[in-house]
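#dry-run=false #mode=assembly
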Amino acid sequence: MSKLSRLQSQATPWLLLLPAAVLLATFTHIPAVTTFINSFYTTPRGARPARFVGVEQYQSMLADPVFLAALKNNAIYALGTVPLAIGLSLLMAIIVNSSIRGRALLRMSFFLPTVLPMIAVANIWLFFYTPGYGLFDQILANFGFSSTNWLGSPNTALPSLMLLGIWKEAGFFMIFYLAALQQISPSLAEAAALEGASRWYYFRRIVFPLLMPTTLFVLVNALINSFRLIDHVIVMTRGGPDNASTLLLYYIYNTAFRFWDTAYASALTMVLLAALAAFSFIQFGILDRKVHYK
Amino acid sequence: MSYMSTLRAFAVSGALMMPGAAWAQQVEINFYYPVAIGGPVTQIVEDLISRFEAENPDVKVNPIYSGTYSETISKALAAFRAGQPPELAVMLSVDMYTLVDEGAVAPIERFVETDEDRAWLEGFMPVFMSNSQTADQTWGVPFQRGTTVFFWNKNMFEEAGLDPDVGPQNWEEVVEFAGKLTKRDASGNATTWGMQVPSSLTSYWLLQGYVAQNEGKLFELSGDQTYFDSPEVVEALEYWVSLAHEHKVMKPGVIEWATNPKDFFEGKAAMITTTSGNLTNVKNNAPFPFGVQILPEHKKRGAPTSGGNIFIFEGVDAEKQEAAFRFTKWLTSAEQSAEWSIKTGYIAPREDAWETAAMKTYVEEFPEALVPREQIPFMVPELSTYENQRVARVIDDAIEASLTATKTPAQALADAQAEAERILRNYRN
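#status=ok
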């Protein structure tokens, strides 16, 4: 083999990787590094250029009531929506996996919320939540409840968004569970039946452990989505009233593109990235060892 | 961006087909405009532009719809930072300090040369200019401006034994009328609220009306000082909150801008305050006779201005800026100003626009259109500071916290003032 052809054979894989690498670097890695660097400077404005301030942006976060509220809201949002969405999706998957009548219709209707764009769904739900003559108030009026300002009260604004989040997400996760359920060999169910195991025992000791890889995957995705999806916040409450429904990413968006404080937004972004990285590490590093793979 | 470059490509290919002379001379400018009201705004804008181009064959204007007001400033500033700003854009008058601080916009005086130019610039009403000028320069040209007005349902007034042709004239009357107009079912739940004031998003704007009526002010025109915790402001917010909590004549919690007129149409609210931009909407959709008037008074009358100015950007060729100026001047002259006002419902910000034949005919047919104009002598400039969006958000949060009873008005406003102080401190010399 000549020198040239050896060089060629070494260069080929790199050349093949180049398009993907360029795209990833341009749109993911370089912006992430730039964001990290920017978070240590002030925001340049007109005549005043950016100035190095060290960790000042991170320090001011601790004294920022809106950031703390956003962090708390996001924690509540994640803790409230993720387990419920996963539980609901598993339940729906089991229902549509059994041989009941109208199964195709049921599968479709469970999956429908996933197909609709979040913006459209949020606008529809905006009507559901309208005080007085919205869908929920009209239904509740039949049971003697008075009108509720769902999105306009600090106690109900975030739960209202969470309910929409669960409804929107569960159908998507159902698909993964459904696929996983259909992978489970029917002979296991037959064997369990022969041994006299109850259906609950069969689910708890056989089906659920076999679904663990799917559950882990869904858990990671649900958690990321709970930090990533803010379309409904923008459409329905814009974080109000008094930041009762402000989520972290929405606050970052506001800081960067409405307040134009790009440096502070960079610092906030680093916090979000760090939190997501920590979750992924916990899930894949620690939980993964306990998951049973076939 | 790709949309813009496509537009450019189209424009260039169009220009190439023209005779050489025209191609050499034609200046092309991009015009960002938001749509904040109902109606065929895009069509009206394009129609105006085609007439301007017919009169000025050497200028080509590309109208670019840019979403809401906040999306427009986001896009325009992002484009400016990337070195490709539009030549001109319609943005909120109150974002002036933000734009000046960024060095993004050019002072209008730079382009004013002839006596005719000067006469044009002096023709705008002073109250609309106060949100357009700082440091002895004019940075924005008043274009689509508005105010808040007061609507009431005449049928409900009759049912409640009130004179349907006379709205409440002061704060006490609002409470009194609203008490009579609020209807409750057997279990005591309200089915119709006497009074509704929107409080989602830019609610500071409605607070500012109450503050002006209470002889107070929210901010200093220099844009670096706010007075959120002053007694006049606290009293104003306490009055607003009392409508919901003490007198129980207003829906508690936050009231959406969009549902407020709808509540009015549905008979869920008997009296509402909303933007004068809703005049045509109410006229077309209220299934009952309605009354409209300027805001009720307290110590005096008062209401804030609102709306968008035209800004000319820096960072483009002087020749293009000059073309942008010519277009701005044409668009805001008496005739076009009157036409824009009639077709959209915005207040024409020039005295001479109200003297045009078209405007006189319109006002005769639709006398309600005169109400926003009646309010002009009592108007105060809308809250406008450095980092305006952020400061506005701080006071909006305080209003929401008070209306939802999370904090008392005094506490909420003290917190807001402290936060505004932290933001604006950097801008004082």
